[in-house]
Amino acid sequence: MKRVLTLLTLGSLAASLPAQQTPPEPTAAPAPKTTLTPDQATNVLKQLAELERTILQQRGTNLGSIIQKLRTAASSDAAAISFIEDCDKLVNVERKDADRDEARKIEQKAEQAKRNETKKTEDKEGDLAMSLRLSLEYLALTLEAADAKDLALMVPKVQAFHQSLITHGKKLHGQAGEMLMRPVAGGGGGRRGGLALDVRVVIEAYQLDRYLRREGWPMEPGNIVRMYQQVILKPSLEKHKDDIATIWDSAINAEATFRKERLPEGEFAIWQQSEYPALRWMRAVDLAGSGPNPVSGMAEMLKVIKDHPGHPSSPEWIKQLRQLVAPSLPDPAPATVAP
Fold first, then answer.
1. C-alpha 109 chain-centroid distance
2. pLDDT tens digits, residue range 187-200?
3. Given phi > 0 = left and psi -120 to 50 = alpha, else beta, which region is 287?
4. The whole model's pTM is what?
5. Is 140 left (phi over 0), alpha (psi -120 to 50) or beta?
6. Cβ 62 vs Cβ 13: under 8 Å
7. What is the DSSP string of 168-207?
8. What is the CA radius of gyration of the chain?
9. C-alpha angle with apex 295: 293 to 297, nearest 5 degrees?
10. For a surface tag, which of 9, 53, 76, 336 has the fewest beta carbons within 10 Å of its beta carbon?
């Protein structure tokens, strides 16, 4: 099978990006004691503008190439495994001057991973290769988000990714599902035939750590609600109040559908009892605090309490709603329970 990526290409791309093992961020440069003349300042600013254009262009070219390779790797199980194999060799053989035996072990693990996918394993742990492919796709999205001027521009791609999660949901139980709930930059690989299916080796191979720190971008591929809260819903909370209820409904429905597809029936029932009411409460709080009609939002809060009186958070919910309705009144003494 043709390799997704040659070691030579990996090495050249990795060399063009900053090293992962870097010192802490430098502090701001101290103000100079001498003042430049207007002509000197103009000259320096002109040079800085030219350098900035060149650096951003090179950065975009490098990241664009890596993003394309990630998406190519995510296109099939075999491509994803070969991609991981090449990254593994670069990180653990070439850069560490390891011997041929180490490279042979990596090759053997990759071949074993391609051969040993059985229905029995998939029934127990889920489709780990599919989970890896989705993780690679999410890593590509994360790199795109790193340079996006506005994260709102990423919303259509994020929603398409969520649809992929739901489409493959039945294959994403067990370790496969757990992999997608861990931060993509923090690893979280499963094992398939002895080969570690772990996107961390990709991040290390390409020196990507510094590009995965976009504020407001969730790092867990499978955390649908957090993506809605931090990226999709946030603009509406600030500017488009009429859309808040609809967006929250989409978030809750997508999360519930994904959970139902990937969780065993008993675990999904527990999610419905504990997490689903909490999501409804978060929706109601946003409607009361940022929606077009705060009174309707408070009515939604009251409905959640009435619908789920046995929820562990219901006493706290009562306190929150009481403070909104009558903020000047002190909290009543806790009710006593008859023995």
1. 28
2. 444 333 334 567 88
3. alpha
4. 0.74
5. alpha
6. yes
7. TGGG--HHHHHHHTS-GGG---EEETTEEE-THHHHHHHT
8. 25
9. 75
10. 336
